[in-house]
Description:
152 residues; alpha/beta; five-stranded mixed beta sheet; 5 strands; 45% helix; globular
Amino acid sequence: NTGLMLVGEAPGKREDDLEKPFQGPAGKLLDELLAELGLDRSKLYIDNVVRCRPPGNRKPEPEEVKACSPYMRGVLQVVKPRVAVALGGTALYGLTGKEKISLWRGKKIWSKYGFMVVPTWHPAYCLRNRSTVPELKADLAMAVRSLGLFKI
């Protein structure tokens, strides 16, 4: 446990089938960026704020995030992250109660659970908006620097 946790939105079809987060194209981009930063994905805890794939792969609704919050609370009690990266608006909402990822992206804020959160773009968003990939990478590096464990 490095103290760093990555939190996404909800499983997509591939993730649902494999029962692992970030297994599709967004996961591949995330893996590439982590490798560029010298991070081994297997040493990080990665999860989603919503446990089940929403119908039609739509964005989870606030009620669904709230319904899954007891599970997330339990995970956080076990993992005990010092810093979490909120990958996208749903993760930001689930960890902090804040909305509008565009207002919070790239800033350090506190979660409602007592640890630091670095909100950033979801990798799937970056695949659709390639100009945001450097921001995602910079935010991941900020989270790592915040831990003081790695030199980036």
